[in-house]
Write a structure and sequence with these properties.
Tachylectin-2, Chain A, Jelly Rolls, six-stranded antiparallel beta sheet, 1 helix, about 50% strand, globular, binds beta-D-fructofuranose
């Protein structure tokens, strides 16, 4: 094993011991120490779930990208494994960037990732060269392939840039390996390229899978491409987006394109939508579980909102809760992974609570909860103007979810959560007009809130770093409404 990886493994082992359990979320994965961004290599290997992540063990800022590594039996309780890769070779010494993994027929864990090498031109300007590389392992130790990189700039189609060429996602279909990878053209537009291989090591360029055509942002990062419910789904995370109504927001965003594959094997787009309508969600990856569920996990953070960070924390970056995804009426549906139910503790349930003003329900509080709130007008008319749930509330700081039944808009808000930076703290999302009825499922886990609206028709996520003792929850309405609340405390069983 090389020095850099050994050093990282020794460091993380020591550092981890200094981080008390209560300092982390209960269910949301955080880096073993230091910094985490994108989920990588989400896969099943020898019957266990494996997840890697973009990782700088040494500091809570982005830096030399390693691959951190965890495994799990149920996608909720993760166990840290030693760091899998460090940036050290002549093709990846400036970063082992994002990628994916798959179990091969002969029982190996095959990783495809992007190697980054910083170069300097004759004028002294730095530029990156990004190539696709392979590493092979046994679920713990990984060996970089001696013939790396396996896809370089000379396997690019005309007009493709060599600088932004990253994040390969591998899959197997009809006995062959394929990968889709992000690319920025020399004239500055995003596209995704497809390659294929018989063995996972020797790759041939197939085609441009899809072009952005200057619609959604610029470079498309971290693609994923899979069959689901009779459709073909493409996920990607565009940089530098412009807003479109309440569908897409400025900056780094997420994009889901639902379509089908024609007789020539080409992807035909049908519907485009955001994946997550909140503030913090990026670079999701999916797997197909043994029982046939497509499960997605994303980075519960956004590049444009890094200033949500608490300087006193020994870790930065967390993953979303894994979500079961499906397609209904041409749209993406997301639900919290059902295994979360195995972690339910005390349950509080109230039916037909009339809310007219400010309302607190006894025992409805906490920072690790899975709570579903059903709201409806009290009569046949729209009897209320606004509904609000406040949470992580200590009387001074709080965050909120607001529903405006007239506009059919849900807003999440962390403006008063205690953060002192002028970053985005609110986001709105247009939801189905159901005459004032709405279902809000809220999952709180110490430093995050994920909101599943109307059985997963839309999801809004955000990080909140309010003091952990802020546990208050209250409900408010202008006018009069009726609600049911079912709250399950979440706890880790020993
Ligand atoms: C997305 C991303 C990827 C890249 C990685 C680097 O968040 O920019 O495109 O591989 O992060 O850490």
């Amino acid at each position: 094993m090389n020095d850099k990886l050994l050093k990282a493994r020794e460091y993380e082992c020591k550092k981890e011991k200094t981080i008390a359990e209560g300092f982390r979320p209960l269910f949301h994965l955080t880096p073993r120490c230091g910094w985490m961004n994108d989920p990588n290599g989400f896969s099943i290997y020898k019957g266990k779930y494996h997840l890697f992540y973009q990782y700088n063990p040494y500091e809570t800022v982005w830096g030399p990208m390693h691959w951190g590594h965890v495994e799990s039996e149920d996608l909720i309780d993760w166990k840290y494994l030693p760091a899998a890769m460090a940036p050290e070779t002549d093709y990846d010494k400036d970063g082992c960037f994002s990628g994916s993994a798959i179990e091969t027929e002969d029982g190996k864990h095959l990783i495809l990732y992007t190697g980054v090498l910083r170069k300097q031109d004759e004028n002294g300007n730095f530029y990156d060269v990004q190539t696709q590389c392979v590493a092979v392992g046994d679920g713990r130790d990984y060996e970089k392939y001696e013939m790396n990189p396996v896809i370089t700039g000379d396997k690019l189609p005309e007009g493709a840039g060599k600088i932004d060429f990253r994040d390969p996602k591998i899959w197997k279909e009809n006995g062959k390996y394929y990968l889709v990878v992000g690319n920025k053209t020399v004239d500055g537009d995003g596209q995704l390229l497809q390659y294929s291989s018989d063995d996972g090591f020797n790759w041939n360029y197939d085609k441009i899978l899809i072009k952005n055509n200057r619609r959604f942002g610029v470079m498309w990062e971290c693609p994923d491409y899979f069959a689901l419910d009779g459709k073909r789904v493409l996920l990607t995370s565009p940089q530098d987006m412009l807003p479109e109504g309440l569908e897409f927001h400025n900056g780094n965003g997420t994009l889901c394109i639902i379509g089908s594959v024609n007789d020539e094997g080409d992807f035909c787009e049908e519907n485009c939508q955001a994946v997550d309508y909140g503030i913090d969600f990026y670079a999701p990856q999916t797997i197909r579980t043994k029982d046939g569920r497509q499960v997605m996990i994303g980075w519960l953070q956004n590049w444009d909102a890094l200033a949500i960070k608490r300087e006193d924390f020994p870790w930065f970056g967390q993953m979303s809760l894994p979500r079961e995804i499906s397609i209904k009426n041409g749209r993406l549906i997301q639900k919290p992974i059902r295994e979360i139910k195995n972690y339910y503790g005390k349950r509080v349930s109230r039916q037909n609570v009339i809310v007219t003003d400010d309302c607190v329900l006894s025992s409805v509080e906490g920072r690790c909860i899975d709570m579903t709130v059903n709201v409806r007008p009290t009569g046949s008319d729209l009897s209320y103007g606004k509904f609000e749930i406040r949470f992580a509330d200590n009387g001074k700081e709080y965050s909120s979810i607001e529903f405006d039944p007239v506009e059919s808009v849900v807003k999440i808000d962390r403006k008063h959560s205690g953060n002192r930076r002028a970053i985005v703290h609110q986001r709105r999302c247009k939801v189905a007009d159901n005459n004032g009825e709405i279902t809000l499922r809220v999952i709180l886990d110490r430093y995050s809130m994920e909101l599943f609206i109307n059985d997963g028709e839309q999801v809004m996520s955000m990080g909140i770093f309010t003091d952990i003792k802020a546990e208050g929850i209250s409900f408010r309405a202008s006018g009069e409404l009726s609600m049911d609340v079912v709250m399950n405390e979440l706890e880790k069983k020993k």
